[in-house]
Design brief:
Layout (H helix, E strand, L loop, with lengths): L14 E6 L3 H11 L4 E7 L3 H10 L4 E3 L2 H5 L6 E4 L6 H10 L3 E5 L6 H14 L3 E4 L6 H11 L6 E9 L4 E2 L8 H4 L3 H4 L1 H11 L5 E9 L9 E2 L16 E8 L4 E7 L9 E8 L3 E7 L8 E5 L1 E2 L2 E2 L11 H15 L1 H4 L5 H19 L3 E2 L1
Length: 370
């Protein structure tokens, strides 16, 4: 059933939200919404009865549902968070948008660009917000480096490299994460999309001209590289995705970007999330040993003054991750129709198109133009 979109909620009106998904990401959304004045979490949906009951009690949520379809039938909702396996992003988001609800989805936007396009089209038809949670660009150290690059301190960036690498970090072997039909891909689609997002964000959103990528599945198919820490959901799917991917990306204007994403490889034990850039007047290295578990990365800027090295270490504070993501989403929803149109999921769709091109390149062993 399609419900006519309701009028924009007044700035001070209570925003009534629902959350679909009970895992780590869904719990981050619940925590964030609960800390925003004027937001009421009125519904929660998920399949784990005991966990759903616990979360509903913790956050005083009056309506619990087993299925997302039931949640979307609830009258009075203004917005919904979608924090479920990737194959469900598109059907839930599109159904919610068609009911006149604003949507905040976990990354990636969908399994591929085709599904993502349908989500964006639905947001445009409904004149509603579609946002995707890219929480790592909200890191405090990335924000500091963003300011340095925007001020021109490094000159014109011409080369960058970014990665997220794990030693044994395949989400529990046999889970939906390792099923291509459900996940859309392996670490490139899972954590690599974060790397791609914060790298292009730092570089000022240059247009991607072409990609040349390779994927490898050397450990996962042999039952190696798994770790229970990354998911509590286990099924019996075969290992069908990559466990490591790399891509050489040509950017408009001649700059280049290399990204790496790996769930499992024989490297140091601690996860690594990093970004390095060379510019015409300086460079920088950002290294978070421990990846997302490290609140402040090591950040070093390399430059010169009066012909001498003038390298320095900028100070940074921890970022606010999902709290900032959810607050920004709420602010946009409360901003009304004048701002909704520029928050239609287009940026997340562009990320999906690039990931698609990387997988195509890896399959066809050639450079793919966008």
């Amino acid at each position: 059933m399609t419900r006519e979109p309701s009028a924009a909620p007044p700035q001070k009106a209570t925003l009534r939200v629902g959350v679909v998904g009970l895992g780590w990401a869904g719990q981050q959304h619940l925590k964030a919404y609960s800390q925003i004045e004027g937001v009421e979490i009125v519904a929660l949906a998920g399949m784990e009865d005991e966990l759903r009951d616990e979360l509903a009690q913790e956050y005083s949520i009056p309506n619990e549902f087993l299925s997302w379809e039931e949640l979307l039938e609830l009258d009075g909702l203004d917005a919904v968070s979608v924090a479920v396996p990737t194959f469900l992003h598109a059907p839930i988001a599109i159904a919610a948008l068609e009911r006149g609800l604003h949507v905040l989805s976990e990354k990636p936007i969908a399994r591929n660009g085709e599904e993502g396009q349908r989500m964006v089209d639905a947001a445009r038809r409904a004149s509603r917000v579609l946002d995707v949670a890219f929480n790592h660009r909200r890191r405090g150290d990335i924000q500091v480096l963003k300011g340095i690059i925007e001020r021109g301190d490094l000159g014109r960036p011409y080369y960058a490299k970014a990665s997220w690498l794990r030693r044994s970090g395949i989400p529990k072997l046999g889970s939906w994460f390792t099923n291509k039909e459900m996940a859309g891909g392996g670490p490139l689609a899972d954590i690599g999309v974060h790397v791609l997002d914060y790298a292009l964000y730092l570089l000022g959103e240059p247009k991607v001209v072409s990609v040349s990528a390779a994927t490898h599945a050397e450990l996962g198919p042999r039952g190696r590289g798994g770790n229970d820490r990354y998911t509590a959901l286990s099924t019996n799917f075969a290992y069908e995705v990559e466990d490591f991917a790399s891509a050489f990306i040509r950017l408009e204007g001649g700059a280049t970007l290399i990204i790496e994403a790996g769930w499992a490889s024989y490297r140091e034990e601690a996860d690594l999330m990093d970004f390095s850039v060379f510019g015409t007047d300086g460079g920088a290295d950002l290294r978070a040993v421990g990846a997302s578990m490290t609140p402040i990365a090591d950040l070093r800027v390399y430059t010169e003054k009066d012909g001498k090295n003038a390298d320095y270490t900028p100070a940074a504070e921890p970022g606010r991750a999902h709290q900032a993501v959810v607050e920004d989403f709420v602010t946009v929803v409360r901003g009304g129709e004048t701002v909704w149109g520029v928050h239609d999921g287009s940026l997340a769709l562009s990320r999906a198109r690039i990931i698609d091109a990387c997988y195509q390149s890896a399959t066809e062993h050639r450079e793919v133009e966008l």
